[in-house]
Design brief:
Oligomer: single chain
CATH architecture of the largest domain: Orthogonal Bundle
Helix content: 55-70%
Number of strands: 0
CATH class of the largest domain: Mainly Alpha
Mean pLDDT: 95
Distance between the termini: 30 Å
Number of domains: 2
Low-confidence stretches: none
Radius of gyration: 18 Å
Strand content: under 5%
Order of helices and strands: HHHHHHHHHHHHH
Length: 203
């Protein structure tokens, strides 16, 4: 199993981690490396601040606008009228971000797959958060799912922070800064730790 060693490492941290990992079982994290950074960013924006089902619906409507292609190219997305994108369910802010990502892909600001894989986590975060509406979380989803980086803990992610609160039985959800500190002992497998934290059962 590809994440067996990571699961063992995390289970060795303390009894809470060991119990949770034993209950959940093997890590079944599924990256999507076939998606290039442009597509990954567009998909991440579609799901931003939405439940998965709502994101699926919006993204599905976007893709059906472009029959004959698996995903709209930057050129086609840039040329799509704002009202058409609004009809898919995107907000005005997200539409501006999508068009900025498409323009960034054409200008080379959004790197191709080979370039992105050669860049460090921090370099990619710095470069891509220069795009309007693209925050650290969005780039971290790209790092986790497209570039298959194993040591990413999205400290801004509410599911990660609240999962840790439930794992440890805390009264309050940790702040972003506290979550960064909590994540240090989870390295070099913070991506797998995030996968498990997303799955801490709710009472």
């Amino acid at each position: 199993m590809p994440y067996h060693h990571a699961s063992e490492f995390l289970a060795s941290i303390d009894p809470d981690w060991a119990r949770h990992i034993r209950a959940i079982g093997p890590c079944l994290h599924q990256p999507k490396p076939a998606r290039d950074p442009y597509e990954a960013l567009v998909r991440a924006i579609a799901y931003q601040q939405l439940h998965a089902r709502a994101g699926d619906a919006i993204l599905g409507r976007l893709i059906t606008l472009f029959p004959g292609m698996p995903f709209p190219t930057p050129e086609r997305l840039l040329a799509t009228e704002v009202d058409v994108l609004r009809g898919c369910g995107f907000s005005a802010g997200k539409i501006a971000t999508l068009k900025g990502i498409a323009q960034g892909a054409l200008d080379g600001l959004v790197p191709d797959d080979a370039t992105a894989r050669a860049m460090s986590d921090d370099a990619l975060i710095e470069r891509l958060t220069a795009l309007r509406g693209v925050g650290r979380w969005t780039v971290e989803m790209l790092l986790i799912y497209t570039l298959e980086r194993l040591d990413i803990l999205p400290a801004d992610d509410f599911g990660v922070r609240d999962g840790y609160r439930r794992l440890k039985g805390l009264a309050q959800t940790p702040s972003r800064q506290h979550m960064i500190e909590i994540g240090r002992p989870l390295s070099p497998y913070r991506t797998v730790a995030a996968w498990y934290l997303w799955r801490v059962p709710k009472p």
